[in-house]
Specification:
This is Inhibitor of vertebrate lysozyme (Ivy). The protein has about 180 residues and is of the alpha+beta class. About 35% of the residues lie in helices and about 20% in strands. It folds into two domains: about 10-35; about 55-175, no CATH class. The radius of gyration is 22 Å and the shape is globular.
Length: about 180
Amino acid sequence: MSRERASPARRMACRRPGAARLLRALICAALSLAAPLAPSAGPAAPQTADEPPGAVAASALIGRPVAALLGQPGVAMNLRMAGGGWQRALAQAVRLPGPPLRLADNGRHLYGWGCAPAGCSEAGVFLAWDPHGEQIFAVLMDDRRPVLFVPPRAGRSWPAALAAPLREFDAEAAGMIRFAAGALR
């Protein structure tokens, strides 16, 4: 193929023959370095054909502290991006004591919270995760008021199955959120 007839993309690739190879090498190196850092959870639970990978991970987290959710792929990054200026407060709040992670009534959402010794409304976080849709739901409390909602209150509604757990965490925050049809008000 002559150089005059080659496409612009092909001509660019010809100018930099090692660029793609270098990029692949960098990606492989990054993945090989990250693999040993991943925490070992022991033998994985068997997965059925109709069960998504997140469902197996969710069942292994039941009974653990809410901070264990941060180890799931995408949870920490999504929370960090949604946290804006509240990232430090979120990081501290997920490490506060609270009840262990539980499965919502719909069997789909895993939730838990961490609260300051003075109470959840003083400082705390409610965190829920949908492993099937890889969505997170969070409320951060600071100085007796909710300061962060993920997703935002003006955004999409929260799943109805999270209404009762959020009300247990903080009734005021639950009253500010729009839940999907079927949630008890």
